[in-house]
Batch of 2 targets.
Target 1
Amino acid sequence: MKGLGGQKVLLVHSSSSKPSGGGAGSPGMGRRRVWLVLFLALFACVSLASLLSSARDASSAVGGRRRAQSAAVAKVAVSAAAAKGRRGDADDALGPGLPGYVFDALVQYAVVGGNTSGSMPAADVRAIAAALKRRGAPCNLLVFGLGGETPLWRALNHGGRTVFLDENQWYVSHLEGRHPGLEAYDVAYTTTVREFPDLLEAARAARAAECRPVQNLLFSDCRLAINDLPNHLYDVSWDVILVDGPRGYTASSPGRMAAIFTAGVLARARKEEGAATDVLVHDYEREVERACSREFLCEENRVPETSTRSLAHFVIRGGSAVRRESFCGGAGAGATAAQ
């Protein structure tokens, strides 16, 4: 028992769990991994840059081809338009203005959409549009009165000059804001419908003096002459004048006596030989419009074929052959005086 008790027991521990000098925690292995990550990142950046450059080159090539195709299409369109203009296709083109089919489409949509109580009758819209088309829009168009048809008249005379005159200064400013480029001026009328009989009688008495048919309206003393417009408007050779204003449906309204008289003088003041102005008077069925039109525009100048019940179409000639001593001929003057 004594010999046995003196024995010593040796415990042997495995060294497999001890970290070796080349293990994962060594500084050398960490540096190699960092370099590997940097190399991969650099490679990815170079590849991405190369890919983007190739995409830009391809896009530029496609864009160049598209621009070339667009230029070719534009060239063909211009050539076709020029060829059509040389053929003189009156149905599809109106000179430098709107193409004929666009003109007709605008009129059609205006007629179809104009079914409210304040809209101009469809027959009158078509008659006015037809007068503009025969005149050969674009032209110089003067319109007395602003309203629902204002954008239409301006559009139909695309490329020409369209000027609007209205009694309501606020409405002029309002429409100028809604339709940039609209040329409109407010007019201060000094007449009323209830004065119509006296004004007409005074104009007849002064037919050879201040209310004569050919004169400079800027210096006119006739009460029916509108002489406060911008000066340059009196120098324009107006091709078409539309009288659709001012208001004339009450005794206190300004009435259209002055507008019709001024339209007649402006038309006769044209100096070009053979010049003629289309004057259209709306609401012709009313007493004031009918009487003043017969007095200052004359029944002899009315074109029944292009007139309606509520729209009268007159063709007034200017130049050296214009009658200066009276508005109408003998028969016309007698008929007007008898009213």
Note: DSSP finds ten helices and six strands in the chain.
Target 2
Amino acid sequence: MAFAIYYFKDETVEVGETDWMSAEDQQHTSSEMTTLRPRLEDEDGWINVKWDKGRKRKHGPAFFPAKVLMISDNYSDLCQKREEFIKGVDIWNQTLKRKTKPNSRWMKDMENKDERPTNQQKSKKATCTPKEASDQIIEGLKKELMAKQASLESNTEKEESSDEDLLPRNWSKAQQKIKELKRENKRLKEGNVKEILDAMRELPVVVAKMKEVIENFNLKLVSDDLVCLLPGSNVEVPRRKLNSLRTANPSVDIGDLAVLVYGRETLSCSSLTGRQSGAHKDLESKPQLDNTKLDAIIGHALSKFPDISVQDVRRIIRKKCNNESYTKQATAKKTM
């Protein structure tokens, strides 16, 4: 059985089974997540997890948005990782270092092998006395030292002579090069000042063009990634924003979906039916919301939350229109 560390939106961290994720989310998760640190501040990557967390429903456990921090078959190891994560430890960069000891028997064999004399050494020992062998070694070392000393002295003399010969010529060339560099630096400064002033005059135009390019690019990204809100409907919304509406509260989810489809300005200036309110007969009736978009929202909400009815969805959208209208009026009063 596999387990996972879940990070919920209320910043709590828990360890649970991977079966508590939906089948679709289990396909997108894998054991590779043990080495990848998720971006907790992003709106993408949230999945629904069956977790009571002190709340109970009549028809089964509740679903809460969470992110998977790590997956493993070792439950106790994940519990320890959870405690370390809460303390601020980077649990993804930890590596186990295995300590190995050298084979003592092999080390002894190598030492004995180094200590064994070769056949040539044995023959020398047999033909030379200890004193003669030591004298030969000392004489060889003296010759090597004398040869190295002579080589170092000759190299030093050559370097000193070459430096003395090249110093006057190099100094005059260096002075000439310095003068040329000063003239070039002065010319570049004068030219750069003029170029900088010209560039500053053109800067507002460049900034305006950059903004236009960025806006067009963002519009293209949004238009290229649209998804139908309901099969057979022509009501389309950005896929990324639709996927970010992952919450177990139907009121919040449907209200945010209405803002995504209509926009806050349209909701604040419209009503569900377009008829005049009985409580405010002195006010003019507001225009009715687009029925095609309304039907798409209702169909999407019923497929996502089977326990609610059409009347529940209409009531939530009506309340969202009233709230947006009240917020708009309050903002207008503050600015006056």
Note: The longest strand covers residues 63-72.
